[in-house]
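Quarterly update from the structural biology core.
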Amino acid sequence: MLGCSVWATDNTFNSHTFEYSSYFDRENLALQHVLELPDQKWKPFAGNYYQVSLTNDEFWELDDYPILWVKIEIPKRIKQDRLLLEVVPNTGVDGLLVQNIQGRWQWISAEGRQLNNPNSLPTTYLTFSIDPTTETKIAYLKLNTSQVYNFSIDVYEPSAWVWETLTRHMLIGMVLGAMMLAFCYNLAIGISAGERLYLIYAAYVASMFFYTIVYQGYLRVYFPDWGGQGVVARSTVYIVIYAALAFAREFFNLREERGRLDKVTQVTQASIIIALLISLFVNDFYAFVINDSLSIFSILIGFFAGFHGLKRGHPLAKLFLFAWSCFLIGSLAWTFVWIGLVRPTTLATNMLLVGTAIEIGLLSLILSYRYSFFKETSESLSEQYKKYQSLSETDELTGINNRRGFLKAVDKEINKTPHELVWLALDIDHFKSFNDKYGHLAGDRLLAAFGALLKSRTQREELTSKLVIERSGEVYRRSIVGRMGGEEFSILLVNTSLSQAKLYVDRLMKEFSELHVINDRGEVINTTLSIGGAPVKENDSIDQAWKRADARLYEAKAAGRNCAIITP
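Predicted structure, tokenized:
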């Protein structure tokens, strides 16, 4: 027989090896019959691993659920009274250990299932405690599977096993922690921003998180009777590849294009659901074959989606393909283990784990960049829109609202809870004559100076109003001003009675009279102002309130100008 490549780490027996051989039992033989089998019936392992390739007829005979017996030849001169024998990877594989202890063959359950044994260890892999000091240096494993038999056997001292397990769990824990962060981050973005892509990706990460727990054997710790069953692993794989296709479809907008690739993706997703349902009822071996085939096909579709995006100039297609390639390499290594093309060791599980970690990390960075880019772009567009909107609603010469901006602000104010409003209509007297006499540049200076005066008063009132509200909670007068065209202006006084409006107008006319501009000849010039005002009544439209104020303005002009008429 060939010696296996399992070496103990303790110096007391680091030169001794275990040897293994196998026997396919299709008749469910009793233990006594197995013990009596001649040596030629046993097939030696090629090292410490058992492997059956899909090109081998034996692979396709697994649909009959044969039992696999493994004969373990224990080296002599081992002083340790306990070793741990670990079967990896072990998804779908279960069994019992048989060892002759004190002259009697005893069935030994896997670690984690020995309910009455306080020393039983919680293990993620199918692990047995073996006593190497017995006189009979042969033990047997009776294995059954709901998938295929492709595994290796590692033997550890308890202390070495603890260190190996701790190292393994630290690596897995870091990857699972990163997945959890990616899930929470993308879920938060998806919910807050209403981004479907991030919600789908969060679902994909969650499915990958759960699948990692399954294939790393953590379900076996909490549910030793069924946590390692193949149907559990297959079901999680279907969920993963369905979510992966949904993500690729959304990432490259295949759903909107409705092309041939999108149809293939949809058909594949439908096939995944059908295969999941079928796998619950058909032979486990064929369910496993369908699962692996559909998994590889789904990953390839993800590649096609990436190349499709690259062809169409998608800015993140190259990074997506690189991330997907990392996952593909790990997935193929894991798949090839089960179809007998890669040696079944923890290297394959580590490749899948690392490939998944790189993929999740890169895709998370890609989506984070995408979100930041779109957020910055959106904020920039929003600022530009606000700037454009401000420009479109602001009078360029005076710096206050133009007609459009003023009416928009007034409409918003009128539709609030009923409160006191007074509309003032203003007109600079004899403005045409002013322009003819002093020139249009002087007229523009006068308009700009008046606009600055109104804007300054409005800003002071806004500030005072905020301070009063913060300190006493009471409302305070404020105003909305606008240039309606030419020399015509309007002011809406908010939270202002008619008597308060009259005081406001008196001060405004006084300030206007003190407003002087200088013409091209250096002369200080000015003119007068006419104002008409009326309260805005409940249920008034803008047009009705405006006309009523205009009527008072015409009365002021008819009265000789340079005056104000404020009446109900």
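The chain has 16 helices and 17 strands.
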